[in-house]
């Protein structure tokens, strides 16, 4: 979490702009789930494009070929902002945008079916602004460094290059980031709708509750920037791997694949600028995890979860992440736990 006055640091926000979580407490219980959870995982994988096709293949498995109606409806909310963005910066025309809306991506992005302490079924997912957000972040990070070329050496790191408030690039970056954050939020909403439909098709039962409390349906960013008021001043708060935790505000803190996750309520700790950690965090790089662990290790570590258990996802093995219980204990003055979730199905990109 980085608070700034009169400036924004694009590299602090990063390239996965608007990355965050969505969680929904459904009307289902554990008894409503099929005995064969592989069938459910396959239905989710069919409903939501995930992963990425490398090389020169024309068809990217991580994008829609023909986006469904709910994606079209959400793209309509983004259309005006996209027109401004691409008219001023035509380079963004050559990006994955419309066909990435409602798709998961790769890496640590996931869709999970979880159970809470009462065995109520939850859907939880993690994704961001996909290809277009990456392009926006990459371009403006590079632009900030070029704009500060003469004074860049005075900074401890090139990644601290910033735009000053009141300049054209500051305004453009803030507008582009706000659009990417909206894309990310709508991306998660579209995926949630399609996972609900998939779950309904498998269980043949109504998934959504007639009425949902605020703590039972949450969509929150953990890589973003916005203007906030703290200590009597208006500032820009950049949360990179952090969640807003204002008093009474609900958030989602996932563990690693196979570990517990939490629905939390913020305590409004001003010393943290009303923020908390967004998850467990890695204890080793993806490269090291792939060298250190085997497929057999992955199978043992995720024995209780219906998920991929192959060489391509070893870098997401639970042992590559911190102990989520220790993380939660360390931030007990920032949030309180409302629900504790355990995964039964996990879809990775």
Give your account of this protein's structure.
The chain is α+β, with helices and mostly antiparallel strands and 349 residues long. It has a domain at 2-222: tRNA-splicing ligase RtcB. Helices cover 32% and strands 23% of the residues. It is built from eight helices and 14 strands. The strands form four sheets. Strands 7-3-5-4-14-12-11 form a seven-stranded antiparallel β-sheet. A three-stranded antiparallel β-sheet has the order 1-9-8, covered by helices on one side. Strands 2-6 form a two-stranded antiparallel sheet. A hairpin with a 7-residue loop joins strand 11 and strand 12. Helix 2 (37-47) packs across helix 5 (168-203), helix 3 (69-88) runs antiparallel to helix 5 (168-203) and helix 4 packs antiparallel against helix 5 (168-203). The longest helix has 36 residues, at 168-203. The radius of gyration is 20 Å and the shape is globular. The two termini are 27 Å apart. It is an enzyme of class 6 (ligase). InterPro entries: RtcB (IPR001233), RtcB-like (IPR052915), RtcB-like_sf (IPR036025). Keywords: GTP-binding, Ligase, Manganese, Metal-binding, Nucleotide-binding, RNA repair. It comes from Escherichia coli. One of its GO terms (molecular function) is GTP binding.
